[in-house]
Amino acid sequence: MGMSVGASEGDDEVMSSINTTPLVDVMLVLLIIFLLTIPVVTKQVELTLPTVTNEALITKPENITLSVDKQGNYFWNGGFVRPENLMNYVQTVAAAVPQPEIHVRADKEVRYEFVGRAVATAQRAGILKVGFITDPELREVNF
Question: What are φ and ψ of residue 28, in 5° steps?
C-alpha cells in the first residue's frame, strides 16, 4: 500500500491478508496472565485426612485355602492333594450352594506354572471367586 503520484498502469491491488503477529502477541500475554493468576484464585480447604490401617481379612469357615509350595505341591485346607486329584476336590466345592471362594496361597519362589494350573482348574470347574493371599510388606512412607 503506497501512494503513487502519476499514472498507474493496471488495477490497484487491495491487500486482503491480516497481519496476525500482534494477535499472537496479545494471546501469549493473556496466557501468561491466566497462568499466573489461576493458582492465586484456587483455594484449598485445610483438612486433616483420616489414616487407615490394613486389617487382615477374616476368612469365612466355608472358604477354601489352596496352598502351593515352591516344589509345586498342592494343599487343600492344609491337607496334601495330588495334582491329578485337584479337579475332583474343586468340582465338589463348585457344586455347593452358596459356592465358597478359593483363596490361593503360593510360595513366592513357586513357578508360575503351578499357580496357573490351580487357577485354570478352578476356572474349568466353574468356581466364580478365586483370590490370592499375600503377606503385606510394611514399608515406611515418607512424604
Answer: -65, -40
> Which pLDDT tens digit goes with each residue over 3-39?
555 555 656 777 778 888 889 999 999 999 988 887 7
**pLDDT tens digits for range 111-130:** 999 999 999 999 999 999 99
C-alpha cell at 50: 483420616
Q: Which three cell numbers stand for residue 99?
A: 459356592
* Phi (first) and psi of residue 75, to 5 degrees: -130, 120
CB 114 within 8 A of CB 72: yes
CB 65 within 8 A of CB 111: no
Burial category of 121 from C-beta neighbours within 10 Å (exposed 0-12, middle 13-18, buried 19 and up): buried
Closest CA to 141 of 52, 57, 58: 52
Q: How many helices (H) and strands (E) does the chain have?
A: 3, 5
Domains along the chain? 64-133 (3.30.420.270)
Overall pTM > 0.70: no
